[in-house]
User: What shape does this take?
Amino acid sequence: MSFEYDIPCVATTRSGAEVPISLKIAKSFRDKAIGYMGAKSIGKSTGMAYARGRSLHTLFMRVPIDVCWIGRFDPSDQSWPVVSLDASVAPWRILFAPRGAVGGIEVAPGTFTESDRPISIRRLD
Assistant: This one.
């Protein structure tokens, strides 16, 4: 697989809290199709980013996920704005990006709440 591993990031929430996340960036079609399929768990501070995707699926997944729908990457501050949050998405679902989203970041369920969802995710490297 051609993941770009362990990109250190921090998500800033509505309350101003900063949540550290280590992202894997799925680059190839195969990586995007497989993602977390078959994973028994997802680490609390890890996630997978899918840029340039208008949909995500949880087919063949064993665990629920939170999906942060992201806008276009801003190279000036190395961040993605978070357009929307789909919390605790169950396995065997197909999701479509909301208006303004260009991709998604999958994280462990419970990483964020709807009342304190992230407003941006910034790369630290």
